[in-house]
């Protein structure tokens, strides 16, 4: 299951490759070279590292928010990694924007870049220019794939990819907020990533993931704003498009913040093994395994479904004696 996931050494090799290629973004709010590299490495491997720290921990798995089957915690965590494995993606030719995204989400942005990486210089507002410019030269010099054939919008592709990522992060946030509640008690955030209450000092709220969950509405809202802005526009440039900048910049800023907060939270939580193990016997989590066993023994599956409740009743009776 863990084959092919990024280790510390592999993460450092990836960062070294970015530095050598001139793609690494040095942030001024981090004190020195070491702080920059350490923070980048943390972003690259945070969720994978959390899965590795909890190998073998079985937790109740839920469907419809009802207990369903026992699953490995790392299976759940790596499901989010598969949706979203930390990759570095350059979203501008000047390397101004560097986002770290959790495999499928990164793939969408890579696909987005491939679809929109065409040079608009010379496309003008509608039908190009009659001036003797070499569009292929400027396109190549600026790192584009080719000149843009016709003027077209591309922002909705980026905001669509951002919105899907935001939904994935929001679902992770919702799950962890539930698990941090007293009703579940599966997860405890450290003080660095939780808050109390002004009138209820006993509380330890997972505020960062609540904010991630809330920010997803903003990112999706940015996409909706852009789509509604564009839905009635005829071909080519219209003055309405001066309104497209705000949702684009806001979406990128929000998604970067959501990713950074999620990575920080993942590095500052612990899973309560004792509470989780006490929760496993309830809910007949082994019912599916028993049904599979009866099917393998040549029993009809519909018949096995009738047998299992009787077995569950016997188990409950025995546990109450």
TrEMBL record:
InterPro entries to which the protein is assigned, alphabetical: Argininosuccinate_lyase, Fumarate_lyase_CS, Fumarate_lyase_fam, Fumarate_lyase_N, L-Aspartase-like
GO molecular function: argininosuccinate lyase activity
Domain Fumarate lyase N-terminal: 32-221
GO cellular component, one term: cytosol
GO BP field: L-arginine biosynthetic process via ornithine
Highest taxon of the lineage: Eukaryota
Pfam families xref list: Lyase_1 (PF00206)
Protein family (similarity comment): Belongs to the lyase 1 family. Argininosuccinate lyase subfamily.
Protein known as: Fumarate lyase N-terminal domain-containing protein
Species whose genome carries this gene: Anisodus tanguticus
């Amino acid at each position: 299951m863990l084959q092919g996931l990024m280790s510390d050494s592999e993460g450092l090799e990836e960062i070294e490759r970015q530095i050598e290629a001139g793609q690494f973004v040095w942030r001024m709010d981090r004190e020195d070279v070491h702080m920059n590299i350490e923070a980048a490495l943390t972003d690259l491997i945070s969720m994978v590292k959390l899965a590795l720290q909890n190998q073998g921990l079985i937790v109740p798995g839920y469907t419809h928010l009802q207990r369903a089957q026992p699953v490995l915690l790392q299976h759940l965590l790596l499901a989010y990694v598969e949706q979203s494995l930390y990759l570095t993606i350059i979203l501008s030719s000047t390397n101004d924007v560097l986002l770290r995204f959790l495999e499928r989400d990164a793939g969408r942005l890579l696909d987005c870049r491939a679809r929109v990486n065409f040079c608009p210089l010379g496309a003008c507002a509608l039908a190009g220019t009659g001036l003797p410019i070499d569009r292929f030269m400027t396109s190549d010099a600026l790192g584009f794939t080719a000149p843009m054939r016709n003027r077209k919008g591309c922002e909705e592709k980026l905001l669509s990819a951002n919105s899907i990522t935001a939904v994935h992060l929001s679902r992770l946030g919702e799950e962890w907020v539930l698990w941090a509640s007293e009703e579940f008690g599966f997860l405890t955030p450290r003080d660095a990533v939780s808050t109390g209450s002004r009138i209820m000092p006993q509380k330890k709220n997972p505020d960062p993931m609540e904010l991630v969950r809330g920010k997803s509405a903003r990112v999706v809202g940015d996409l909706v704003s852009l789509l509604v802005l564009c839905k009635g526009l005829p071909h080519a440039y219209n003055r309405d498009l001066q309104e497209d900048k705000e949702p684009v910049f806001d979406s990128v800023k929000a998604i970067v913040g959501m990713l950074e907060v999620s990575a920080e939270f993942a590095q500052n939580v612990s899973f309560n093994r004792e509470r989780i193990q006490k929760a496993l016997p309830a809910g007949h989590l082994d019912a599916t395994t028993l049904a599979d066993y009866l099917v393998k023994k040549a029993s009809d599956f519909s018949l096995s479904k009738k047998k299992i409740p009787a077995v569950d009743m016997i188990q409950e009776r025995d546990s109450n004696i």
